[in-house]
Design a protein that fits this description.
The chain is mainly alpha-helical.
């Protein structure tokens, strides 16, 4: 709790600044699963009124990062195997479709952008800020989404991103997985370069299945 600091940003409403601060604290493990989120205490700690804190908690609940329990209040949500499965089932379907469409529609310019995104991802693997690595990973996949030129698909993926983000963070926390992720990205890129939809689907499916296995293991260990 002592690490909570509100960084004022003149371009963002206060409720968004509070939301970003709490979200970052949850994803970095500064606020741990099961920890109560008391509006008065958080407002005092962050130097704001209760209203932006309340609004931020509601938004975090929609993201799946906070759970509001009747007669108890809000607390940081525990990760669950079922939620992981639910989120990744949808992500798997959308990303396989994105890979198939990108094989048909990816331009030379977009492929160059994808190569650059994977290079950036590899270059930040040693960062002490896990969110920097997660963002670079997200940026890689975003190039593929945009290459589909399917606005509905991009919209659906964007709605899912926040729910996927926590699991992306957990996967990347395992340092042994980071270089493997670069290799998996390269396999996806090769399939796209070959314009091979089946190879793209398989590479993407394997990529997501490995993430699910890794995070499911973490969840089981936390439940012991």
């Amino acid at each position: 709790m002592d690490s909570l600091r509100v960084n004022e940003n003149e371009y963002l409403p206060l409720r968004d600044v509070v939301y970003n601060t709490l979200r970052r604290a949850i994803l970095r493990g500064e606020l741990v699963p099961g920890q109560r989120l008391m509006e008065i205490q958080l407002a005092e700690k962050m130097g704001v009124s209760r209203t932006p804190v309340r609004e931020a908690i509601r938004k975090l609940e929609l993201d799946g990062l906070v759970e509001v329990i009747p007669r108890k209040g809000a607390e940081v949500a525990h990760m669950s195997g079922k939620n992981l499965r639910d989120v990744l089932e949808v992500r798997r379907a959308l990303e396989e479709l994105a890979g198939e469409l990108a094989c048909q529609r990816m331009t030379a310019g977009k492929f160059k952008e994808l190569e650059q995104a994977n290079h950036r991802f590899a270059s930040v693997l040693g960062s002490s800020d896990i969110t920097v690595i997660a963002q670079a990973d997200e940026d890689f996949h975003a190039v593929i989404y945009r290459a589909t030129e399917n606005e509905r698909l991009i919209q659906m993926v964007n709605h899912l991103l926040e729910q996927m983000y926590r699991y992306r963070i957990e996967h990347i926390k395992d340092k042994s997985q980071r270089k493997i992720l670069v290799q998996e990205h390269q396999e996806i890129m090769q399939a796209l370069a070959d314009r091979d939809p089946e190879a793209a689907r398989q590479a993407i499916r394997s990529h997501i299945n490995k993430q699910e296995a890794s995070v499911a293991k973490t969840i089981r260990e936390q439940e012991k």
